[in-house]
Amino acid sequence: MNWSIISLFAVYAAVGIGTLVLWWLIYETVLARGYNVRDAVFGKRHNAAVALDLLGGFL
Hints:
Blueprint: H1 5-32, H2 37-42, H3 48-58
């Protein structure tokens, strides 16, 4: 398996773009259903930083 730096960067970029598109689709679905985006993303957690850490870990 002899991958060049350009190939690895292309895979990394494709995964990043795919993740952004997936997040955008989830965001649009939440808006289309009429949910409050803040409640949908953060839920009932008291600390928004905890929710962002969980989201970052998931992504």
